[in-house]
Amino acid sequence: MLAEDLGITTENLAKWWQNHLVYGETFRAGQLVLIDEASLAGTLPLDRITAIAADAGAKVLLVGDYAQLQSVDAGGALSLLVHDRVDAPELIDVHRFIHEWEKAASLGLRQGNPESIDLYVAHDRVRNGDRWAVIGVHRNGSIDVRRHGRRWGSTVLLPAEYVGRHVELGYAITAHRAQGITTDTAHVVVAPGMTRTGGCRWCGRAASRLATLTRSSTRMRSDR
User: Fold this and answer.
1) Are 198 and 175 in contact (CB under 8 A)?
2) Beta bridge partners of 51
């Protein structure tokens, strides 16, 4: 996604490190090294990258939100840097959402404010979604689909170009898989063990509609 938006070659940290070890890939003086979704990066990979960049005379720019999903490895480097430095820039305007109330609600979730969940309930954002079933696949890449659960009617032919750009398998995905994705709608299953960072990530995925599936006793917990 970042490669398309910027028109440049991109790699994840693990792949770049492998290329560095095997092929000697490195940075050059004056190069700007942009690490997106930096909260997901482990502390050790970040240390390796920044050390190589410093030796080469390159600059590393970390972009991300320390209050959202963290690394599956030992992490927290971005949060540490943000809180220990006085010059860390921060975006204050939310542009993803259509509704003004949802902008405020998403920021409240980011700060761990449980009252923000009530805003989603008040706007009827607790409901079920639907799926489409693939009933035919053509050699040119197009597919025939029908609304899930229906035997007749409502069949739609999706062109190959549309399928390649917009269609994914209809399995549930994790919060980490959703990182960086913006959708028109999101359907979130809130479990009792969900952390604030996970809930904030999911509730920030939808531009216009969020459906939260939960039990009345469920509450999001603060990170420990």
Assistant:
1) yes
2) none
Whether residue 164 has pLDDT greater than 90: no
How would you list the strands of the sheet with 155-158, edge to edge? 132-137, 143-147, 155-158
pLDDT of residue 119: 87
- How big is the chain, counted in residues? 224
C-alpha 149/C-alpha 209 separation (Å) is: 23
- How far apart CA 94 and CA 211 sit, in angstroms, is 20
Angstrom distance (rounded) from CA 34 to CA 163: 30
Residue 96 has pLDDT above 70, yes or no: yes
Calculate what percentage of the chain has a pLDDT beyond 90. 26
- Rounded to an integer, the average pLDDT of 153-173 is 79
CA 45 – CA 59 distance, rounded (Å):
16
Measured CA to CA, the distance from residue 207 to residue 202 in angstroms comes to 11
Amino acid at 205: R
pTM value is 0.57
